[in-house]
Write a structure and sequence with these properties.
2 domains, elongated, 7 strands, Trp Operon Repressor, Chain A, binds adenine
Length: about 230
Amino acid sequence: MFEGPFGASIVSRAIRDELVEITIHQLRDYTKDRHRTVDDTPYGGGAGMVMKPAPLADAVQDLKKDASDSGQLQPHVILLSPQGRRLDQNIAKELASRDSLILVCGRYEGVDERFIEALVDEEVSIGDYVISGGEPAAIVLVDAITRLIPGALGSVDSAPSDSFASGLRGKLQGPVYTRPVEWDGREVPEVLLSGDHARLEKWRNEQSDARTRERRPDLLGNEDHKE
Ligand code: ADE
């Protein structure tokens, strides 16, 4: 599941350039029974399966021990779950500043609460919708964090003008255009061809404000994104 997303583009380059290190661990390797069981039916009944606490705890403890043995800071343990703090650019920044993270991918139906109490530092959700497991959520989180690591973005990858980046102070990015100057009877706005930097800057700000007001009024007055 991770090979594709981590093997392409910005994340794979950051790995190659040793800006990030990512290791994937198979939870079944931490089981002790013949069937390598990682989940079981819920106490009290109900739909779905619940992930057993012991393999998860053994996996996390093993990784924490590796960190101490090699003199690293203790990793911050995150469980991806719809019950978590909802991911946004500020959370991505906060997590990017940490030395190391352990991302635990649960399944939607749940993870035994005792494991969460004992070993999870925080739960993070990628949004108010349900996906079947934490893996795609971990991929999203890794991408959002990796982009923020100095040197991870090449010169052709934008950063400062991305929506939510500090350059836009938490507002949406306005429209962008590339060649040709006319396509399908539609023209590129004249200001973009004018070479007038002051006018261009003003136009971009106006477009960004207008789009934010129209599509995401909840972001306005969101001073948190200001640097
Ligand atoms: N697992 C299932 N849904 C999720 C979500 N929205 N965020 C993080 N992990 C999840």
